[in-house]
Amino acid sequence: MLVGGSARRRCAGFLMSRQPELSRGARSPFPYREDINEKIVLWAGDVALLNCTAVVNTSNETLTDKNPVSDSIFRYSGSELLEEMPKLKGCRTGEAKLTKGFGLAARYIIHTVGPKYKTKYRTAAESSLYSCYRNVLQLAKEQSMSTVGFCVISSLKRCYPLEDATHIALRTVRRFLEVHGAALEKVVFAVTEQEESVYMRLLPVYFPRSLEEELRSRPLIPPDIGNADGEPVVPERQIRISEKPVTYEDDSSEDEGLSLGLSFIGSHAFARMEGDVDKQRRLALQGQMSGAALQKQHQRNYNRWLSRARTEDLSDIAALKALYQSGVDNCGRTVIVVVGRNIPVLLIDMEKALLYFIHMMDHVAVKEYVLVYFHTLTGDHNHLDSDFLRNIHDIVDAKYKKNLKALYFVHPTFRSKVSTWFFTTFTVSGLKDKVHQVESLHQLFTAISVEQIEIPPFVLDYDARENGPFFPSNSFSGL
Asked: Signal sequence: where (predicted)?
């Protein structure tokens, strides 16, 4: 039993039996499914009182936030939770971390951190909030939990519009249950009286209780319904870099050049910068700029990016966990991990992604290092444009290129192999011999021990399905 008797009466109102079937002509992208509806419970009450396998706590990055949800969870769980929290060492925005429930009726508490909402970075906030719900559900699945009680993760302190946040919450849960419905018996949304009206209005959009309600709710479906996982998708946010960017002539005014540049390649500062790099190359080839002058100009440009990277708030990019430092390889070189599936190219500000890369890598690249790129289960919306990669190569300091000793491309596809060959042969120099195509984790572990690399669970699951159990050996001729 999930909740008490009076609460049960309130939440049961959302669960309805099948209604007479209507025409299937104009189906919703979230069609009526009785098997999924049976798993959804809406409850107006305190999430800390739920007798679920796990309940969700919303907090800040240091897990010390003071909000009604956290205060109640800490009050009922007792002093043992307070003693346990420092062991988590904080939690990044969008991540989910697990503790015991201690004094709660729930066996576990899943702690997560919702994003701070700013209109300027709306798409980044949407992506981070999606990550909160998705990571909680994924953690519940991995730990074989049968029931999960969600609070409203986007707290008022973080200024997230309630209706927008509710769309993301319901959509993410719906898409997860469509694929992994067998993993969970119940998902409970615990809401306050103020939140209840919004949930009651939007629940039929994503969990229609009949074909009639499915059709009636279609006008409430927002333009962006996310991808197959419910993750927000905004195609117009994708960076587009012209193959032949406009260059300013000496006799052109700055305003005229800027106007022409914007009309040709867009207003993105990173896209405009490509023209500067090309112009410097041409001048060097024409003998109008010496190699030393070009290097000095390049260093000044890199230092400007590094200065910005050290001052801007990049927590939304860090929350994606698409780039992180792991241990060391068998030669003692730092291992940097890139997770392709975690890069929502269509959603994030790619300029901020570059800033995060520089911020993290500047101190790493002073010594020898290796990159491990997990191409596992990446979709078209995760692929980085070759022009973007070329510009990263052009921007970063020389130490990045000199000290990169190997790039392990894990779980490549035929298409990615062709693209990588083309990119390393015709676009950048000096990288081709460093790239190693790695078909299985068995091969990877001969270069980097399993204890020295943090691998996403979905990569482990995929490799086990495709290659079977791995048995690390001490030699691998391909690396």
From this structure: none
